Amino acid sequence: MIFLMIAAALWVRLLWLQVLQPDHWVLIARRQHVQVLELPPLRGSILDRNRKPLALSLRLTSVFADPRHIKEAGSLARRLSPLLGKPETKLRAELSRKKRGFVWLARKIPNQTAAQIRSMRLPGVHLVMETQRFYPHGYLAAQVIGFSGMDSQGLEGLEMTCDRILKGEPGWRWLARDARRRNVGAWEMATVPPRDGLEVVLTLDSTIQYIAERALEEGYKKSRAKAACIVVSDPATGEILALANRPSYDPNRFAKVTPDQRRNRAVTDTFEPGSVFKVVTAAVALGTGIVKPEDTFNCENGSYAVAGRILHDHQPHGVLTFREVISQSSNIGVAKAAMKVGANPLYQGIRAFGFGEPTGVDLPGEVGGTLRPPSQWSKPTITTIPMGHEVAVNALQLTQMISVVANGGFLVRPWIIREIRDPSSGALVKSFKPKRVRRVVTPETAAELQRILAMVVQTGTGKLAHVDGFQAAGKTGTAQKLEANGTYSHSKFTASFIGFIPAERPRLSIVVVLDEPKFPYYGGVVAAPIFKRTAADTLAYLGTQNET
Amino acid sequence: MKNFFVGVLAATVLALGYVQQRVWLITLGYRVESLSSARDDLLDQYRVLNYNVLTLQSPVILDGRLAKRDVQLTPPKAVEILPPRLGTRPPGPVLSALSQSEPSWWKQALQQGTQWFEDGRQAVAEPAREDR
Asked: Which CATH fold topology does A206-249+262-542 show?
């Protein structure tokens, strides 16, 4: 009878657990055995135009601990300390926090170290995979590419602007675990695979980038400048082939980088361009037809009083043709030409070259510069703007401007993102094309300017930009910087060289800007050699046929 | 009674079959997880190796390594006497003995022959700072 009662009780309990109230216990069991595992996506790569990676992600192991399951924190810390390279005392303190169920011991450790820790089978110590961003070329195009942080979030440069494209979407799956925490899998349950980030293909060429960086580094060190930048582009399409800044940094070690090193000066910094701006004045003067290349200007032997101030040339000139005014970089000659053109046509012409507004490049932080309308000009402004003062531009705007001359008169928007691709299938998601904004000068005017700028390199101020076997064209610039009190400095200069090569059929537009170089601080002395080296090596790389 | 036992047997076989299937499924689960983990590890290793190749091919790294080596190559000369500190070892006994006195024709011939064998060591010179 007792046996029957016990059996009946057991049956009732069994019925209760298995039939009437199964969900409660199933839920508890599930909590213990089944969990959702997030599958992180791999951040998309950033590639150069030849599909060479400039930034890519790798999966590395991180180590965490559950201190509640650790009995001897001291001995565990002693064993882990040499492997993780952390002080034993610090590790012991971390492992002794019994109230916490989770502490990071080390993040993104080398795979060999992870394998060693895994083989030790330490209780309460677990490994998890995380992605880490790597930049195989180190400092190459660092300010353009930027970097992403510990949690794979873009923090600077294209990593930041293309973050949504690059980061992808995480997936998840159910995972069953046995009593020893071994994964069994839960194949009957739903799985959502992660969608890896898309690849961003740039217009940059890593070899040209390296050539430009090397030349810039040499010139930057030699001139002992405060900062420097270089932009190399294809004048016909506006594609940026290289963009480098100094000082620079290695994005693999972004934590130690100062804001000064991070800045992409070619787009974020504006400066008074000085004599390189005479190219715009010349284009407007010739384009309006008011000035002819053969027109002569009296350059007053280097000193000319106008609009309540005295203009000076860097060396005295007498009567020069307009061609010579540009090639010899006469401030007085160019001011007289501008006065002949008039304020409004000059302003309209400068605007047509894209000054006073951002170029629209896909890089963060671009500024549009400063260009005041004639209504806000003071009396001497008509003489200062033509020689590149009272205007502020960035290096990319100068690249855009010199490309107009090089490509026969079209304003072409500079661009840096060429394609977006799906890494899993290789399919093209989106491609970008060159954008001609407008015609700025006629082909005849552009051809005349090309001849004048070739003269600058042959016989004028830019002789150091000459490249053996090719005819280069360009313009030098040495602008005094403004002091805090509003006066022009006599010790701080912005030296620059803008040009293109080969002069007849230009393939490259190059802009070099050096901020506060030490003596000799002239653009023709410090910036032109950087142009020369970059142009020579790049043309050799591109295999351009020798012209002469 | 017989039917009852047959029923119990059939139920037992079915239950055992079910359990066996579950055990088999779990065993397969372990195997799939282990293979999946191995595949992920190999893919990760592949990516890391690929990254290493990329790094080694980078012009920045190559240029840095060449600069470190400071090789300073110069065109070879027909005859070059290296300074003693660059020589790997003193002249061999044959050459030492021969250099003591004015050589006769047969000694000169022998000297030329041994010189031919010893030329190799004179050509050995290491760069100033090897990048290892």
From this structure: Beta-lactamase (3.40.710)
